[in-house]
Write a structure and sequence with these properties.
globular; two-stranded antiparallel ribbon
């Protein structure tokens, strides 16, 4: 009611239902719409009407105040965060009072520990900042420029960009520090210790399915603030259904793009083939009335076929499909938790696909449609590499500015080069050892005395830091790096990185960018590992309590990798889960070895003579190799395959602890009376099975893409390798 009355007034007064900003040519707010801090998507935003008087003097005064508050808040926010991450300074804050930095608590409680002299220093510094420069209207200091070049620049545009960024960061910091103050004041903890919220209604749900690391229980909208378990169960049931529908919908988008459409007719009566149905949202227009009836009927069946009232299995998402449930409560919990996570991801994915499809008319968002995108300016730049192509998820290049792009590229090159040197500095001493002799003869410091990694920082003498800084300064000032110069593009004349041939130079610089990006990731990982373990390489001997220790002597742990589980499947330390996965790995490996041999053998030895199916008149020689063979298998053949699979599964007891659970089905080719010989054979089988799993997947892809089980070279008529082979 309030909204529509407002719209009527606005429309009647301006002649525009939405109030066209172009009509307000005489508005005093026009004076400030191009000021610093006016940023997309909000634009100039002053809901309290501070600028309604149009006074530029008042605006400048408030801007000066905003900058100061923002800077103080950024320092205060870092003051909260830094001690939590890096710890406190060593030594004394006040030697006269016997007060150590370590004795000062984080957050608001620190105020009570500051000695009188400390408050004096704080106030003196504040006074110095206020009175050391002329801040009257029109002076640089009035606009926040105190001569610290980190915040300003000789280039007006660069200066404007930096100050705009500072304003945005300051506004964020003001919000952040107020939030921290409230949290600290309410809980007595600078970071808000969850252990303090013993009476929170959210406690009722912190052990529910879907509460997963690293976020934990997360309900920013406060749906569970009433503590109602009934409402929680209803929402969980809804979440499961939405997640399942979204998973099906996401696969419905993806599958036709990869596998193609079904053969034949979707609706014979309407003459509609599956091939005639487009992918994505456009498919909706092609579904016949009978199809909508089937969809609605199936939805109704799912809803009414089982009792879903509170407390029933169906209310918890258990409809009796054993792929999602299990007789073992822990296994069932794990499966349902995984389903929830996958469903949440699918809900995000399908909404993204809908938007992309609706905006571009293409289920996958055809890049060819974005002809006017500012990103087009950079799609052929160095560093744009397959398979990602031009990748800028943070939108740094969304403004299309080639100047900003060049500046960021120059910075990326420098960071990459430093990171490559730093990474090699970590690796080389571990492999080759240290230099002989002294690093600092005057200090009696040998190279051999300098530890690897972060601990080396404490050993660098003052003269060493001077040399490091001098070299950095030389690299920065020895050449003109302004826009358009070779140095701005990273070319400092070192011919190892450049070349007289433009294509060779481009290739080298592209390789350098890729290596630099990898090195930036590598050195950060090394820093974290070193900081957490005290070892530049993360000494495995330090992880004595790791749950992975339980599996380091298992079959399949082979040099040079050792125990390798990058996905963290064994992080829970469960021997039961490990045994189940090992059993599955053995089966998959054995099937893959048979499948791989099934691809290779007919190519080498030919087919078996005679008939595969005498009743169908089908000879073995008529069955093609590879995936195409699937279309030739008669119904009885599929029956035999399924019967053999069932026999392997049910003919022996495979429960935990039995020989079959460990892959021993009594076929002596894989076992032996000698335990060591048996262990060697099973280890070899695991390795061969892993290789076969990789091999058969590669064969499937090659066969599916080329139509040939072995990838017929004759199909690659346009390959650039043709030129090399024919030379």
């Amino acid at each position: 009611m309030m909204a529509i009355i407002g719209m009527f007034f606005q429309d009647g007064l301006t002649g525009s239902a939405w109030g066209d900003w172009a009509n307000y040519t005489a508005s005093p707010l026009r004076a400030f719409e191009n000021e610093l801090g006016v940023q997309a998507p909000v634009g100039f935003w002053d809901p309290a009407g501070f600028t309604a008087d149009g006074s530029t003097e008042n605006f400048a005064r408030r801007r000066q105040t905003e900058l100061k508050h923002g800077r103080i808040s950024m320092l205060a926010t870092m003051g909260y965060i830094t001690p939590e991450i890096t710890g406190k300074f060593p030594g004394y804050l006040s030697p006269s009072a016997g007060l150590k930095f370590a004795d000062v608590p984080n957050g608001l409680a620190a105020i009570s520990k500051v000695p009188a002299a400390g408050w004096g220093q704080i106030l003196a510094y504040m006074a110095f900042c206020e009175v050391s420069q002329d801040q009257s209207a029109g002076t640089p200091a009035a606009a926040g420029d105190f001569g610290f070049k980190v915040l300003t620049a000789s280039d007006p545009e660069a200066k404007k960009t930096k100050l705009a960024a500072e304003l945005a960061n300051g506004r964020l910091a003001m919000m952040a520090i107020i939030g921290m103050f409230f949290q600290d004041g309410l809980t007595g903890s600078a970071w808000g210790d969850w252990a303090n919220y013993t009476a929170s209604p959210l406690r009722a749900f912190e052990n529910e399915l879907g509460v997963q690391a690293p976020v934990g229980f997360w309900d920013p909208a406060g749906f569970t603030a009433d503590g109602s378990t009934e409402n929680f169960a209803r929402r969980r049931q809804t979440e499961l259904k939405h997640g399942r529908i979204s998973m099906l919908a996401t696969m419905g988008y993806i599958t036709p793009e990869i596998t193609g459409k079904f053969p034949g007719y979707l609706s014979p009566s309407a003459g509609l083939k599956f091939a005639d149905v487009p992918n994505g949202l456009a498919a909706i227009s092609k579904v016949p009335a009978a199809g909508w009836g089937q969809i609605l009927a199936y939805m109704a069946f799912c809803e009414v076929s089982q009792d879903q009232s509170a407390g029933t299995p169906a209310a918890a998402g258990d409809f009796g499909f054993k792929v999602l449930t299990a007789s073992d409560p822990e296994a069932k919990k794990t499966k349902l938790a995984a389903e929830l996570a996958n469903g949440r991801l699918a809900m995000m994915a399908i909404i993204g696909m809908f938007f992309q499809d609706g905006l571009t008319g293409s289920a996958w968002g055809d890049w060819a449609n974005y002809t006017a995108s500012p990103l087009r300016a950079f799609e052929n730049e160095l560093g744009v590499q397959a398979p990602v192509g031009f990748w800028d998820p943070a939108g740094f290049t969304a403004d299309g500015s080639t100047e900003n792009f060049a500046r960021r590229r120059q910075t990326e090159l420098k960071h990459g080069r430093i990171s490559m040197l730093a990474t090699m500095g970590y690796i080389t001493p571990e492999i080759t050892g240290k230099f002989p002799g002294y690093l600092s003869p005057s200090a009696g410091l040998k190279f051999a005395d300098v530890p690897n990694g972060l601990a080396a920082i404490s050993k660098v003498p003052a003269a060493g830091w001077g040399q490091i800084l001098a070299y950095m300064a030389f690299c920065e000032v020895s050449q003109d790096q302004s826009a358009g110069t070779p140095a701005a593009a990273g070319d400092f004349g070192f011919k190892v990185l450049t070349a007289s041939d433009p294509e060779a130079k481009k290739t080298k610089l592209a390789a350098e960018l890729a290596n630099g990006r990898l090195a930036m990731m590598a050195i950060i990982g090394m820093f974290f590992q070193d900081g957490l373990t005290g070892s530049a390489w993360g000494d495995w001997a330090n992880y004595t309590a790791s749950p992975l220790r339980a599996f380091e002597n298992e079959l399949g742990v082979q040099a040079p990798v050792g125990f390798w589980d990058p996905a963290g499947f064994t992080a829970d330390g469960s021997t039961e889960n490990f045994a189940r996965r090992r059993q599955t790995e053995l089966k998959h490996g054995r099937i893959s070895m048979l499948a791989t041999m099934g691809y290779i053998t007919p190519e080498i030895t030919g087919k078996i003579p005679g008939y595969l199916s005498p009743s169908a008149g089908l000879k073995f020689a008529d069955v093609p190799n590879g995936l195409a063979a699937i279309s030739k298998v008669p119904a009885a053949g599929w029956g035999q395959i399924l019967a053999y699979m069932a026999f392997c599964e049910v003919s022996q007891d495979q429960s935990a602890g039995t020989p079959a659970a460990a892959g021993d089905f009594g076929f002596k080719v894989l076992t032996a009376a000698d335990p060591e010989a048996k262990k060697t054979k099973l280890a070899a089988e695991l390795a061969n099975g892993r290789l076969a799993m990789m091999a058969i997947i590669g064969m499937f892809f090659q066969d599916g893409l080329t139509g040939s089980a072995w990838g017929d070279w004759a199909n690659y008529t346009a390959s650039p390798l043709r030129a090399a082979r024919e030379m």
